[in-house]
Amino acid sequence: MPEITLIEAIRQAMDEELARDERVFITGEDVGPRGGVFRATQGLYDKYGPKRIIDSPLAELSIVAVGIGAALNGMRPICEIQFADFIHPAFNQIVNEAARFYYRSNGQFPVPMVIRAPYGGGVGGGLYHSQSVEAFFAHVPGLKVVIPSNPYDAKGLLKAAVRDNNPVMFFETKKGYRLIKGEVPEGDYTVPIGPAKVTREGTDLSVFAYGMMHYYCIQAAELLAQEGISVEVVDLRTLAPLDKATILNSVKKTNKALIVYEDNLTGGFGAEIAAIIAGEAFEYLDAPVMRLAGPDIPAVPFSHPMQEFFMPNPQKIADAMRKLAAY
Asked: Which residue among the candidates 88, 129, 139, 304 is catalytic per the annotation?
């Protein structure tokens, strides 16, 4: 299988879904001739034309509103928000409309749309280009929240999201766009939305992560293996719906749990995982449930030294793993 980057896998998924289903279209800021700010849609405008690759105004509310209206009328839109930080003007449309339409219509009106957005820090983007917003949306029933950590899953999960009859928030680690590479088969396949995946077997402790933090956790686990510490790594992949069974089975196996995410510590999605483990696997624990996350400051700073202070990285994760293993 060819090895490609995360961003190439996302582009492949959209290309194949556009070719497969004429109801699919893409809209967002600069997605047309420019190919998007990260070039996720590069080449698609020339291939599919302006009626299916639609440049939007600089108004996120309108991007999502157009997507909702199109989805309610039988289309399958992919709405690109240029940075996850810019999604907040569309918050009401997503949370009060897209997420609730199927329920409020007693199942008469599904909303089959995907909202893509690059999230997270590590690229020197500063306060308005580095935020992690997944916890806001994972809180809302009616939304699916997907965060892939590798090209294979990114392609398969995005294709599954396009075909899903529910609104799917699809967050992509911008730092990993060209850094993370992996083998991706040519041709059609999907990865089901929901199941987590044990990406590294271990016996001494379990670590749970998604997106860029999963990539770092694998590196940290390999470092600790040289020290004789066996770390099991679980890629959550989907936050809503959340695969509780895989989480609990891993904790019951290793008896220790570390949760890693780059959002602010307080109220981040990792707190929900910690609560599930404490509530449903307490008797299996040999140590406190630990979290490693960003500090409770407004956002990732622009200054590179301060950015490094904010962001979890393989060394910080390895240190947390050692601390937990020592219990």
From this structure: 129
